[in-house]
Amino acid sequence: MKRADNLRSVAAPRRVGRLLLRSSLLEALAYPHGVDRYLEIVRPLLVKHDVRAEVTAVHSQTPKSVTLRLRPNENWRGMRAGQFVGLSVAIDGVRETRPYSPAGSQHDAGILELTVSTHPEGKVSRHLRDHARPGMILGLSQAEGEFVLPDTLPERVLLISGGSGITPVMAMLRTLCDEGFAGEIGFLNYARSSALALYGAELDRLAQRHHGLRVARGFTRRAGQPLVGRFHREHLGAVVSQHADAATFVCGPPTLIDAVRAVWRQDGLSEPVVETFTQPAVSFDTDGAEGCVTFLASGSEAANSGLPLLEQAEDAGLFPEYGCRMGICNTCSCRKSSGAVRNVLTGEISSAREEQIRICVSVPVGDVALDL
User: Fold this and answer.
1) Which ranges of the chain would DSSP assign to H, the alpha helix?
2) SS3 at position 243
3) Which of 25, 101, 133, 332 is spaced 20 to 30 A from 139 at the CA atom?
């Protein structure tokens, strides 16, 4: 048999398999669990609906991080530089989800790079650092978020990051370099020390290759570096000729974001585009809480404690899915059938019926009914 015939004989069953996966008949036969429940046992990447990814490489840039290279299955729709994904992994039989921003260029077809910084209380980050290996299968959400480069770029782009906040702006920088952006790019990155700074060697290489790119880094724990201490106005001159007309993107801890915003306000400029994955400081009125929370699917009811609905559901013995627990990843999104809730991040109150809410940042205002 000729080689071409061999290839056709192999490809035909694959095409049939894909057609079967999309078949409503097969879905019906797999009731009540659906096709994906059975496929994930045999071929974890060959699922009909879910996005899964195989770990293809693992390495550590710093003592407190792990970098994963992932190959998503064909359900992955791609991303824009700066967006985030929900990464899911089973730990002790419980699926945990956390938001992470891919650090690779949006033009890296079929490959995702995630750099995860570990924390003492970080269950998922520590698990990935200790157990991630090539061949491991992880769950993914589709990419989300509005922290992205504009469709039309100005002559200058300024990227400012702190700690693990470097990952989305690193994706932006890599994308700009891949696209041959001919304008001016300034890149300011802050870390506690040079030993904990991510992507340092690559930033130096990119600055040597791209004439319009200027990179500077600041380390808060050691003097004598190019930049000393935390962000302040004088640091801008190290990377851009002027910041007033630059498209500016900032990702990092609240202290960094507040410092950049303060300079922009002093100069009468529109706020830069910002993003942070740090838990915001919020307070809850547990003494003045009124009403009750009804969990319709489970048939249970509890007095409103004034805490976010995710915590109230857990206190009632329920196990709703969640990820970031700070209103970013949408993993905990749930339908509210009635009642009003207050968003603890914005203070906005919504009383619309039959709406999806993020229960990790939603507090009841009186009686509320959820489809949980």
Assistant:
1) 3-21, 24-29, 35-42, 123-131, 166-178, 200-209, 254-266, 309-315
2) coil
3) 25
Total count of residues recorded for the chain: 372
pLDDT tens across the length of the chain (372 residues): 444 444 344 444 445 445 544 555 545 554 454 545 444 544 556 556 789 999 999 999 999 999 999 999 999 999 999 999 999 999 998 888 889 999 999 999 889 999 999 988 789 999 999 999 999 999 999 999 999 999 998 899 999 999 999 999 999 999 999 999 999 999 999 998 888 999 999 999 999 999 999 999 988 655 444 566 789 899 999 999 999 999 999 999 988 999 999 999 999 999 999 988 666 667 788 889 999 999 999 999 999 999 999 999 999 999 898 877 888 777 889 999 999 999 998 889 999 989 999 999 999 999 999 999
Q: Classify residue 92 as left (phi > 0), alpha (psi -120 to 50) or beta.
A: left
Q: Under DSSP, is residue 263 helix (H, G, I), strand (E, B) or coil? A: helix
Q: Which CATH class is domain 156-275?
A: alpha beta
For CA atoms 346, 348, 349, 353, give the dihedral sign. negative
Q: In what order do the strands lie in the sheet with 85-91?
A: 94-100, 85-91, 137-140, 51-59, 65-72, 112-117
Residue 251 near residue 276, CB atoms below 8 Å: yes
Q: What CATH number is given for 292-370 in this structure?
A: 3.10.20.30
For residue 189 the two structure tokens come to 């990155």
**Residue with tokens 């991080």, as numbered in its chain:** 65
Cβ–Cβ under 8 Å, residues 77 and 68: no
Neighbours of 88 (CB within 10 A): 21
The CATH number, out of the four listed (2.40.50.140, 2.60.260.20, 2.40.30.10, 3.40.190.10), of the domain defined by the range 50-145: 2.40.30.10
Q: Which amino acid is at 346?
A: T
Q: What angle do CA 191, 194, 198 make, to 5 degrees?
A: 65
